[in-house]
Amino acid sequence: MSPFLLSVLALLPIGVVAIFLVGLRWPAVRAMPLCYLTVVVLAIAVWRTPLVQIVAATVNGIIVAATMIFIVFGAIVMLNTLRESGGLSAIRAGFIKASPDRRIQVIIIAWLFGSFIEGSAGFGTPAAVCVPLLAGLGFPAMAAVVAGMAIQSTPVSFGAVGTPVLVGIHNGLSGDPAVLAYAAAGGHLEWADFLGFLGGRVAVIHAIVGTFIPLIVVCLMTRFFGKNRSFAEGLAVWKFALFAGLAMTIPYCLVARFLGPEFPSLIGSAVGLLVVITAAKRGFLMPPREEAWDFEPRESWPQDWSGTLTLREEPGGAPAMGQLRAWAPYLIVAGLLVLTRLKSLPLGEWLKSASLDLPNLFGSNVAVSVQPLYLPGTVFLLAALAAAWLHRLPLAGVRRAWMASGRTAAAASIALIFTVPMVQVFINSGGGAAGYEKMPIALAAGIAGLAGSGWPLAAPLVGGLGAFVAGSNTVSNMMFSLFQFGVGERIGVDPGWIVALQAVGGAAGNVICVHNVVAAAATVGLLGREGIIIRRTLVVFLYYATFAGALGLAIIRYAEDGWMNAGTILLAAMLVGIAVLVRRKRG
Predict the structure, then answer these.
(1) Nearest to residue 552, comparing CAs of 503, 500, 515, 510?
(2) Which of 16, 68, 489, 513 matches a 20 to 30 Å C-alpha distance to 520?
(3) Pick from 379, 360, 357, 348: which is nearest to 163 by CA?
(4) Please, where are the H alpha helices in 428-472?
(5) Average pLDDT over residues 65-73
(6) Which 3 state secondary structure label does DSSP give 190?
(7) What is the rounded CA–CA span in Å between residue 39 and residue 464?
(8) Nearest to 206 by CA among 559, 545, 556
(9) At 488, is the secondary structure helix, strand, or coil?
(10) Which residue in 174, 198, 209 sits closest to 256, CA to CA?
């Protein structure tokens, strides 16, 4: 079979998602079983993957789905506990006092606090924390999910203390002779130094492209969820949004350059939070309070916007509490995530020691590994118990919080039980009797054949497709880093930049990843509207992948053509196109 035809067949599962979930707006609970069936049929009939490997991949997918459901459950328990105790009302009152403007609130919570949680834990945890918090503060559930998903781009490459680079790129490239020769030629004799070198390049691209994410998120809020459906209302706070972007990306880039891949997102967002919150309190670049932007009253929202999560202003007559006490559970979450993820501390390894490991499930090459104590869900549950104690929540309130959370998590399980096994079969489809590469590699090879010398433009798209399917920048980097390096060598450009573009695209792919969207939607009771959410976040992915690709092309072509090259011309054309589009959409 020709490589092109094979890549078209490998594209079919993604096509099913695009048609039924995004295009026809089927709920994930209906679309994903069809997608799973498509992958299984392809694996058996075309790739001729052993049945035992398909079964093993499916079982592993169910186990991974169970861990995701546990994370969702823990996040909802913590939020429901705060609702019952009155902590959420106190947090909301604190934000209104600082700034009632929803544009400012979404920047601080989604972009900065979300990036901090991503730097600490990764793996979709920011959405599990920020989405229900935003919804609890009065954001429409749909707006909360879109915002929580949209920021999972810039911080992702260095999320979970650098895992996408230190595990993803490392496992993707390590041991290859061509890569080792390239590293040595660049003076990187130590492998850790080489990973730091690649991480520095990843950070440069992210810092340039990602600085605009806060402004894009705000514009999405005002365009899709505002009374006037206007980009202009989002652009009105462009100074503060860009300031918040730079407050995170400048220290982020410096940390990647001088300290390595572990801490750019963690330290960058922490510095950004300190700088931006201080500036907001002093009114720096802030809109006047009388011009504060808000959503329309809840009763006028379209039905699609609202989930099952609601805010009670005065829950159970709970006494008023201070901001520190109200925020304490989130501070506990952040602290525990950092303490358990730092390699210099023994706590993480101790938690990982309680592990279920099946290296060759059913005799296949599929490996299962679960560390239940290490999962963010465990941290959320501990924080919820701490919140109940700190906020003096009666036992009846605790019971209500846990029971409501259980019902919500159970509703999410149906979609995830098909979504994640589909992913696992897709990425474990190699090694069949047909002798073909696994589906993701076959798909990437087809795109490479079409792109030719323009591959730098396509490299982030391939990384994004890998994350879209696998739900992980780390897995995307594992699958495609060596492939991307080889394409860079074949077309005669610096392969290090191509690997960096892969990592950046893999981070951006998280904003449209189906099972991350399902999990985020579940935290606010918005299941069944995943396709509508992806339609919104697709804008962010296309921006990120396209601008990163054009920027990468400009950097790569600079050595031969100077700054006036195809990449910079394309970048200029895109900026002009966006300016024209925004101008036409004003009002």
Answers:
(1) 500
(2) 16
(3) 348
(4) 439-451, 455-470
(5) 83
(6) coil
(7) 19
(8) 545
(9) helix
(10) 198
| pLDDT tens track for 108-157 | 999 998 898 888 777 677 887 788 889 888 899 999 999 999 999 999 99
**With contact defined as beta carbons under 8 Å apart, do 142 and 89 qualify?**
no
| C-alpha–C-alpha distance, residues 130 and 265, integer Å | 16
Position 21 confidence tier, pLDDT thresholds 50, 70, 90: confident
Beta bridge partners of 357: 369
DSSP string, 228-297: T--SHHHHTTHHHHHHHHHHHHHHHHHHHHHT-TTSHHHHHHHHHHHHHHHHHHTTTTPPPGGG---PPP
C-alpha R_g of the chain: 23
Residue 332, CA distances (Å) to 286, 335, 387, 493, 556 in order? 30, 5, 9, 47, 44
**What region, left, alpha or beta, does residue 110 occupy, with left being phi > 0 and alpha being psi -120 to 50 degrees?**
alpha
Q: Rounded CA gap, 545 and 302, in Å?
A: 31
Distance from the Cα of residue 110 to its chain's centroid: 12
The span from the CA of 400 to the CA of 386, in Å, is 16
Work out the mean pLDDT of the chain and round it to a whole number: 87
CA 489 to chain centre: 30
pLDDT tens digits for range 139-152: 999 999 999 999 99
Q: Is residue 244 within 8 Å of residue 272, measured between CB atoms?
A: yes
Give me the amino acid identity at 328: A
Neighbours of 89 (CB within 10 A): 22
- pTM, to two decimals: 0.84
Task: Return the HEC string of 343-376.
Answer: CCCCHHHHHHCCCEEECCHHHCCCCEEECHHHCH
At 218, which helix (H) or strand (E)? helix 213-225
Gap between the Cα atoms of 334 and 233, Å rounded: 32
Q: How far is CA 560 from CA 388, 489, 492, 512, 563, in A?
A: 63, 16, 12, 35, 9
Q: Which residue type does 338 have? A: V
Burial class for 7, CB neighbours closer than 10 Å (0-12, 13-18, 19+): buried
